[in-house]
Amino acid sequence: MAREMSFTRVLIANRGEIALRIQRGCRKLGLETVAVFSETDRDALFVAEADHAVCIGGAAPAESYLNVAAILDAARATGAGAVHPGYGFLSENAGFAAAVEAAGLVFIGPVADAIAMMGSKIEAKAAAEEAGVPVLPGYRGADQSDARLLKEAQVLGTPFLVKASAGGGGRGMRLVTDLADAPEAITSARAEAKGSFGDAAVFLERYAPHARHVEVQILGDSHGNVVHLGDRDCSLQRNHQKLIEEAPAADLPEALRDDMRAAAVRLAQSIAYRSAGTVEYLYDPARGEYYFLEMNTRLQVEHPVTEAITGVDLVEWQLRVARGEPLTLTQSDVQFNGHSIEVRIAAENPAENFRPETGEITLWAPPAGARLDSGVAAGSIVSHHYDSMLAKLIVHAPDRAGAIRQAVAAIDAFAVGGVGLNLSYQRALLSHADYQAFRHHTSGLSELFPDGWTQPTADASDTGLAAMALHLHLAPAGTSPWESLGSWRLTAPAGRPGAASYWGNTSEDAPVRMSGTPAELAAHLSDGQSITAEAATLTADRLSGRIDGVPFSRIAHVERSGSHWRVHLQTSGGMVTTDLRTLEDQHLTRASGGSGGADLLSAPMPGAVAEVRVAPGDRVAAGDTLVVLEAMKLLQSLPAPVAGVVTEIYCAPGDTVAGHAALVKLDPEEEI
């Protein structure tokens, strides 16, 4: 029989946007919140907005957000009666759930046994089969010998996957398309599984190359009630990490959709599941079949799209179920309205192999009219210690086409400075004909961009407007020419128009030349054309005026970036970034001998040194990996800038280094 559990204060064992989201859910029910935070997150928004906050350790997750003892000590010290794990970190750790309960606290999620069962891919698939849920053909036996696995691989045939039983996020997974490669795939998958999860068990299953990722949201209570809240499609993925999610899953046969939903409820009922959870499937359109993939025993990153189409607050219901309340909604009460899309916003550069971006956010101006679950604001510091996802943009419209249009429009109006984001890449995905026609699948990014993806750049006209924004920024109205910065030459009081030139960040020729006054300001472009704006102003990060008598207004944020200026400008193709140098910047660059440092490998961002692959005296070719840096859970291979001989090494594995820190010095050679 279900117990009534009483608590008035909830400790949130997480950080960032999900901690803020759970705080909103708690406030809705009149519950106080406790934030636990690392030393790096001391000034974060989720800490400031909590009712109580406790520092639990250093920046490394193992010292803080994965430190079970410190979290439980914080709960006891603050009088918290319950713990919400959010997602990631300890959210699907059965040992943590058990430790919370053993400490006399309420764990806001399923029971530890359910977490453990679904955490083992082998056990989860066995439970799914028992519940009558289809699973992919494969081998999930206890005999883990090489001989048995290779024999089963021959029976299964290619292509197939070797997968870690305790895995997730693509780790411990290998694709085999030739049986001759099976022994190496099994060996390497085992080693990665053991290193990542402490469990070397693997299983084999058929690979569906053009499958879609469809999942069903379920909600259960402690009284035996389970309902589904519809389905989602999460097929746009990179390295098994979702990029864009939507609800409902479009282009599904309705009979198959109904069967997926019913199967998810059946599985949850069979294991007496409580709280929010997600049953994930692979859907193979070519076969018209779906297969159980896994069950996530936590709140999903993409839960807002389900909330948008159902009106059901999942965090609120997690809290109410944890208190022992029965569900008050039946399956017939759940209604679906329109279409919702979520875009994950991450601090990374997709044009440079998704290189993580770190630093201070100097501008954070999200669009109006869309839901934004965010953990940052202007002034926030993006650290290399944690995942690169900073926020989620959620839109809701009557249909899928409308939701896509809303998402693109919202991205186009999203102004961010200081740290690069993946917004332009996400815009390109949303605008792609294959995505809009639902021809994409889980491994289809290379098909969407067969020649790779490049960051949009400003055309000549946009470069002219960017220079205009910088020009106005450096000499705001009413500023004396002796007080202004940069290359503004305000000579209008002497009866002559002002003039200045701005060069691209990497070019010393063909500058954009500005002339006139804000009343009539002209940008003379490198292609011989010019743009003249009347009543030009730059106010509150918006460039406004009239061109050919037609009013215009664009987001334009100007900031200093190292030895140059950076202008973020809203264009018809989305936000673009233009780097510009003033005359003073040109002189300073020449005086310092240019960018220099061709013989020095420096850290492109703060991070931890994972490997040093060279020693003094080693001869290397340009492009050889010298150092491997870990930042934001990703490993970055840093190549030799030139061919030469290693003369000095300034770092060692385990060191934490700052951005631009010197790592390796080379004595360049003409040829190696």
From TrEMBL:
Nucleotide-binding as UniProt keyword: yes
Domain Biotin carboxylation: 6-450
Pfam families for this protein: Biotin_carb_C, Biotin_carb_N, Biotin_lipoyl, BT_MCC_alpha, CPSase_L_D2
Top-level taxon in the UniProt lineage: Bacteria
InterPro entries assigned to the protein according to its UniProt record, in alphabetical order: ATP-grasp, BC-like_N, Biotin_BS, Biotin_carboxylase_complex, Biotin_carboxylation_dom, Biotin_COase_C, Biotin_lipoyl, CPAse_ATP-bd
All copies of domain ATP-grasp, residue ranges: 125-323
Keywords: ATP-binding, Biotin, Ligase, Nucleotide-binding
GO terms, molecular function: ATP binding; ligase activity; metal ion binding
SMART domains, per database record: Biotin_carb_C
PROSITE patterns xref list: ATP_GRASP (PS50975), BC (PS50979), BIOTIN (PS00188), BIOTINYL_LIPOYL (PS50968), CPSASE_2 (PS00867)
Signal peptide boundaries: none
Essential cofactor(s): biotin
Protein name: Acetyl/propionyl-CoA carboxylase subunit alpha
Native organism taxonomy: Bacteria, Pseudomonadati, Pseudomonadota, Alphaproteobacteria, Rhodobacterales
